[in-house]
Amino acid sequence: MASIVDSIKTEFGRANWLNRLLYINVGVFILIMIARLVVGLIIAPQDPLLAIRPFIALPSDLREFAIHPWTLFTYMFVHFDFFHILMNMLMLYFLGRIFIEFLGDKRILPVYIYGGIAGGLLFVLLYNISPAFTVKNPLIGASAGVMAVVVAIATKVPQLPVRLLFFEVKLWMVAGILVLIDLANFWDGNTGGHIAHLGGVAVGYFYVRALENGRDWSNGFWNLIRRVSGIFERKPKLRTVHKKSYDKRESRRSTASRAAQSGGNDQKRMDEILDKIKDHGYDKLSKEEKDFLFQFSKK
């Protein structure tokens, strides 16, 4: 089990941000299915999703949103239906590769997150100011973030040819068709999803326009990530200097200082003795001077 976890960590660390988004979405889907099974066995026959959903899906009700504000972020990685996640991940994978080619790998995550946040906020806003929305269903899915990626790259290289089934079309046509589908099916029962898609569309379009004017919104995103990650980084431990160790070092320094001073005095005495020998001869030295001369010569 540990080796499997280590392999997943290694693969995730090596992956680009597109693949990491895919891994996160698929991983969360698998975890939700496991949790759904476990919760279903405990509180059956109640639908297990009713117990899980309030903590991960974005509510339209402002009071519920105030209680669970993190759902503005979590909802964009949540899918309850296999075909829902399949379509989102296929679109993200194929068009995300084009995004990376023309806009770079490190911009795809900010665009995805910005699109998801904009879509979620627009969903909550319209559901609380418009009398047309009486059914308060929560919002889930990566579609808003995916639409931001799709429209961003379609704005960047609109004339790029891409193969759609058996036809080759321009990239702007793909994005245009997806937006038209949202508008045409606005009242089909997934109104909240279509609203979020349009929020993602707006982010993708204005992101590239800002980029063309020299303003890269992804810089602010990565600056925030670095500041947050810096809070949780381990600080280097300060080395404790114990008094005993300090006293020993001071003692050694003092001894060395005295030895150096003594060595200087001995050399001065030796010079005086040598001058006396030069002037008066060795025989004129005292016994103490001869002993000093002998000891000094042994050093």
UniProtKB/TrEMBL annotation:
Signal sequence coordinates: none
Transmembrane portions of the chain: 21-44, 72-96, 108-127, 139-157, 169-187, 193-211
Pfam families (UniProt xref): DUF6576, Rhomboid
Main location: membrane
Residue ranges constituting the DUF6576 domain according to the UniProt record: 265-299
One example GO MF annotation: serine-type endopeptidase activity
GO cellular component: membrane
Example of a GO biological process term: proteolysis
Membrane topology, as annotated: Multi-pass membrane protein
UniProt KW keywords: Hydrolase, Membrane, Protease, Transmembrane, Transmembrane helix
Segments of this protein annotated with the region Disordered: 243-270
SUPFAM superfamilies reported in the protein's UniProt record: Rhomboid-like
Domain Peptidase S54 rhomboid intervals: 69-209
Protein name: Rhomboid family intramembrane serine protease
